[in-house]
Design brief:
The structure holds 2 protein chains of 2 kinds. Helix content of chain A is 52%, strand content 11%. By secondary structure, chain A is α/β, with parallel strands linked by helices. A 6-stranded parallel sheet of chain A has the order 1-10-7-4-2-3, with helices on both faces. A 4-stranded mixed sheet of chain A has the order 8-5-6-9, sandwiched between helices. In chain A, a hairpin with a 4-residue loop joins strand 5 and strand 6. The longest helix of chain A is centred in the N-terminal third of the chain and has 23 residues, at 19-41. The radius of gyration of chain A is 26 Å and the shape is globular. The model of chain A has no long low-confidence stretch (mean pLDDT 95). Chain B is built from 14 helices and 8 strands. A 4-stranded parallel sheet of chain B has the order 2-1-3-4, sandwiched between helices. Chain B has a 4-stranded parallel sheet with strand order 6-5-7-8, with helices on both faces. The radius of gyration of chain B is 18 Å and the shape is globular. By secondary structure, chain B is of the alpha/beta class. The relative contact order of chain B is 0.14. In chain B, strand 7 (213-216), helix 13 and strand 8 form a beta-alpha-beta unit. In chain B, helix 6 (85-98) runs antiparallel to helix 7 (106-115), helix 6 (85-98) crosses helix 9 (147-153) and helix 12 (192-209) crosses helix 13. Chain B has helices spanning 3-7, 17-21, 24-36, 52-56, 60-74, 85-98, 106-115, 119-126, 147-153, 157-166, 187-190, 192-209, 219-231, 241-246; strands spanning 10-13, 40-42, 79-82, 116-118, 140-143, 170-171, 213-216, 237-240. The longest helix of chain B has 18 residues, at 192-209. The chains are: A alpha/beta, B alpha/beta. Chains A and B meet through helix 1, helix 15, helix 18, helix 19 and helix 20 of A and helix 2, helix 3, helix 4, helix 5 and helix 9 of B.
Chain lengths: 472, 250
């Protein structure tokens, strides 16, 4: 089930009626606000670290081709293989081929937003592989046939009770009398079901937080440890990730990790940070026999070559979603896209076309809270404005707004005419208000007066009155 | 006008279209404050709108026209003061960007950016002015940090310092004073459901303080909050910080 970006206003209306969702969003933002304040206060150099993180990502993108080539050399030297994929179809085909060659029946999946982006689960299930998400949130979403609504907290829109109810529906072996009220009991239930998947799985798929050129390593940062099981127990490990994740050095990754968890969840560091380098060597005690990295472009190369390239600095911490008041009002699903919130509203038009997602860059008050928390200082409002400029050029917005703006900008080019028209308009509003200070209804202004009264102008204009009073 | 007044440094005052057309009294209050701080105020007739609606709607060409118009109208003033963080940020942050590749205007826009200030920032930081605590403190207010002023111009302590120096009304901080109220210019009519939901959150925080009025530095946010307060039947008022600091005289 995937909501549609083109139906953003309808999605918003539905979200605003969903009390469970609104409660979850309220708690998310309230807690994250307090958590972040505490985390940042404990690290005096946090702002300097953000600068460093931005510079590292800029440097990595400037040398992306070189980093990727070096990464591939080192992966191959460590007994692995790299698959370069232009788009979602190529990437899904590559993973399916690897699974077939591994003779796989069961595939255990760690959390990966790129796999959501390319709809890998559907492709693998269609190809006959029993594909199971192993991140708790993602697992519940898979059982419910839903998509993630947040980059790092995918099931933030669901309550504990909904988790329990989902397991009662899906787990045949779950006794009716086993209590599932406590978070711990829910986690144990998931762990029981998933442990079996890890042991059965022939292929484990993970995403990547960073790819490291100098070693050919893949870094993942998780809290549940499912990613570690998915990448170490099955015979074959497949990493699916975007090309922009490549860094030069381990040192760079370590600096980014310092801002990643703090920005994502307010933790100083996540529970597990794992560097996987190649296939199992002869004297290794454990590890996958086959190691594959599927590198997905899917529009990233074009972004890198264009004016919105700064979005590729993103390290997918989700802080811009968590802090965004628009996200907080509607939740992730309303965006109708894999990536919700500010980062998604910049990425989605690049991934699926501006025409289909034209609402997303517009649905921002440009408050700048996102830019204020971004660990790599992506100027999100500026990038959103660029999409608005593209949309304006392409005439994608509502005609009435376009004409209104044209009338306004034409009128304001003639300050005397603008002031005269403004004073006349103000007088009309005052007449309509019949002595009250506000209008509750106004023809052609329903978008304002639907939910707000319109305070009535005082009368006259400041500039006009000023010059009359001062006699100039 | 006395000779001494003539020798005072001059401030070019950009009223902003909302003050100009909706609340001239805010403009007069702001001008009185600037004068009390020791400056002479001039109000160029050639001003209208800074072009922000066009800029944020993706019409860069019209935004550039607005920017050139404002730069021309305020060229030559020692200081330019704007009673709004978002219009002020257009002058300070966005005009130089909009006109960067225009050889005739780039230099002028950059120079103007360096001389333009939001009202309370100018009073508190540039003029070093503090209101006299002449009036007995009365009532209570809560301060809403409008986004552009806060994040693009760094205005946070300035209005609080001035309100504190005025000795009243009592300032009661709300939870999340730096969270957007949902105005966002044309955003508030493009996506009214989201805008109103954001206003409701803001108003819940405002009402939780028990303050008589919400005070801010941007009339756009204030008209939006006031309109929603009024629709909710709330008794809380919405006032521009200039009106509070001016003491409502004149």
């Amino acid at each position: 089930m995937q909501a549609d970006s083109a139906r953003f206003p309808e999605n918003v209306a539905a979200a605003r009626r969903d009390e469970t969702l609104l409660g979850a969003l309220h708690r998310l933002q309230r807690d994250a606000r307090a958590g972040r304040a505490e985390t940042v206060s404990k690290l005096p150099e946090f702002e300097a670290l953000r600068d460093a993180a931005r510079d590292i990502r800029n440097g990595a993108l400037a040398n992306l081709a070189g980093n990727l080539e070096r990464f591939e050399e080192n992966v191959v030297a460590n007994g692995g293989e790299v698959h370069w994929c232009r788009d979602a179809a190529e990437a899904c085909a590559a993973v399916a081929r690897i699974c077939r060659e591994a003779g796989a029946k069961t595939v255990a999946k760690g959390k990966s937003m790129v796999s959501e982006e390319i709809r890998l689960n559907a492709a693998l299930i269609d190809a006959g592989f029993d594909t199971v998400e192993t991140d708790l949130g993602e697992y519940v979403l898979q059982l419910r046939d839903e998509t993630p609504s947040h980059i790092v907290i995918p099931a933030i829109h669901l309550t504990k009770d909904q988790f329990a109810e989902t397991f009662r529906g899906a787990h045949d072996t779950l006794p009716e009398d086993r209590p599932l009220e406590e978070a711990r009991a829910i986690t144990d239930e998931a762990r029981g079901a998933l442990r079996d998947v890890f042991l059965r799985a022939d292929v484990g798929i993970t995403g990547a937080n960073f790819l490291i050129a100098e070693t050919g390593s893949v870094a993942i940062v998780t809290n549940e440890g499912n990613g570690d099981l998915a990448q170490s127990l099955p015979r074959t490990h497949v990493v699916v990730t975007g090309i922009e994740k490549a860094l030069g050095t381990v040192e760079e990754a370590l600096t980014l990790i310092r801002v990643l968890a703090r920005s994502a969840t307010g933790q100083e560091i996540s529970a597990y940070t794992t560097f996987a380098t190649g296939a199992k060597r002869a004297d290794d005690a454990a590890g996958p026999e086959n190691f594959h990295v599927v590198l997905v472009d899917n529009g990233r190369g074009d972004l890198l070559a264009g004016p919105k390239r700064e979005i590729l600095r993103c390290i997918r911490c989700g802080a811009c979603q968590t802090v965004c008041p628009v996200y907080g009002a509607v939740g992730g699903h309303a965006y109708g896209a894999v990536y919700a919130g500010p980062v998604g509203s910049v990425l989605t038009p690049a991934l699926s076309g501006l025409e289909k997602s034209k609402h997303l860059p517009e649905a921002s008050s440009f408050c700048g809270a996102c830019e204020g928390v971004c660990p790599v200082r992506i100027p999100l409002p500026r990038l959103l404005r660029m999409w608005r400029e593209d949309a304006f050029q392409a005439h994608l917005g509502p005609k009435v707004l376009r004409w209104g703006l044209f009338a306004w900008s034409t009128l304001t080019a003639w300050p005397w005419a603008y002031r005269t028209a403004g004073a006349i308009g103000g007088r009309m509003l005052r007449l309509m208000a019949m002595g009250r200070g506000r209008l509750t209804r106004l023809p052609f202004a329903g978008k304002w007066t639907g939910g707000r009264d319109l305070p009535v102008p005082e009368g006259g204009t400041f500039v006009g009155k000023w010059h009359r009073r001062r006699g100039k | 006008m006395t000779e001494t007044a003539r020798e005072r440094p001059t401030v070019g005052f950009f009223a902003t279209c909302l003050v100009d057309l909706f609340r001239p009294s805010v403009g007069f209050a702001a001008a009185r404050l600037i004068e009390r701080a020791g400056y002479r105020v001039e109000v160029p007739r050639a001003q209208s709108c800074c072009g922000q609606p066009s800029y944020n709607s993706g019409d860069r060409k019209a935004a550039r026209r607005g920017a050139r118009r404002a730069v021309a109208a305020f060229h030559g003033f020692e200081h330019v003061v704007v009673p709004s963080g978002s219009c002020g940020a257009m002058f300070v942050r966005h005009f130089p960007d909009l006109l960067a590749d225009d050889p005739e205007w780039a230099g002028k826009a950059a120079a103007l950016a360096g001389r333009t200030y939001e009202l309370v920032d100018f009073l508190a930081r540039v003029a070093g002015w503090r209101p006299e605590a002449a009036r007995p403190p009365s009532g209570s207010v809560t301060y809403h940090d409008s986004c552009s002023g806060l994040r693009e111009l760094g205005i946070r302590e300035q209005p609080r310092a001035l309100l504190a120096a005025a000795g009243g009304p009592e300032l009661r901080e709300m939870e999340g004073s730096d969270i957007c109220c949902g105005f966002g210019g044309t955003f508030c009519v493009k996506y009214p459901a989201i805008s109103e939901a954001m206003a409701d959150k803001k108003i819940d925080s405002i009402e939780a303080t028990g303050a008589d009025a919400v005070v801010g530095g941007d009339l756009g946010c204030l008209l939006h909050i006031e309109g929603r307060l009024s629709r909710r039947g709330s008794a809380v008022g919405a006032r521009h910080v200039a009106e509070i600091l001016d003491g409502g005289e004149g």
